[in-house]
Design brief:
About 45% of the residues lie in helices and about 20% in strands. The chain contains ten helices and twelve strands. Strands 6-1-2-3-7 form a five-stranded mixed β-sheet. A five-stranded mixed β-sheet has the order 9-8-12-10-11. A hairpin with a 5-residue loop joins strand 1 (about 60-65) and strand 2 (about 75-80). Helix 4 (about 150-160) runs antiparallel to helix 5.
Length: about 300
Amino acid sequence: MHAAHVPLTDRRRQRSSSILVNFLHIVKKITIGIFILILITIGIFGYLLRVKINHLRNSHIVFVSTHLDGRENLISLVKVVDDQPTTVTFNDELQVPVGKHGQYRLDAVYPLLKQEKYTDAQIASFYSFIFGQVVDTVISLPVENGERLDSQVWLGVRQGTVSVSDAIAIWWLFRSLATEESSTHITQWSQWNRAREQLFDPPLIPNCSLAIVNSTDQSGLAQAFNAVLESEGVEIIRLGSQSEAREKSALYRVDESCEEVVEVIKTLSPVALEVEVSQLPTAEYRAALLLVIGEDIAAFNPQRPD
């Protein structure tokens, strides 16, 4: 018997059906892969966002804000502790020392540092010495009159001065915080020195004493670090100098403890610090930590306003 003859049109129909099935199978695999990739991306972004929000929850943030009509600059220092933001705004005409650059109006500091191509970490360090508080983040925002801070960040995204991730983190943080916000306006540095002790005074960090040694010929560096670190609750037990000059600054610790203080000092420093485990702090200064200031920090000439 002869095999049944399959008409040409049926064979073409079967081939087309097979191609369609394979195509749909491939599309299904691709769709599932894209869906899994989206879920992974959302998970990673969510994790990084939580890390950023938690970082902002216990930090000092400086907002350098300019009205869209160009009228006035606003410089705000925000501290968030226990889900309660404290905001301090400063008169933009206050004169402050900006390291080796000399005296400038407060509203001119950020443009100057950006023009000189300092890194974000170095800009934060300059503001730390200006305000006497370790500044973790500096954010530039355009401002519309009457807008809340958490709304202003979206203007920053449109202007390209704030990243989307920073905007989401700040918006989420301030939306989730207590509605009552403490706000103080400073027109003179003498006001700020009094207000800072009342608003920003943290408890002393126990068992993490620090000695600060200036190895350079430039005076006042140890005192500048001392003023800021004491305001962060760091116990400074000795300020000194040494005759042997060092090119690079260093931070010595007797063991792996006192991580909180180590991170505070690293954030304050305008240069990347070498951190070494050594018995030198205890042997020479009876301290848990030793900061030796070298020529690299002296080049920035950190100072505090009078």
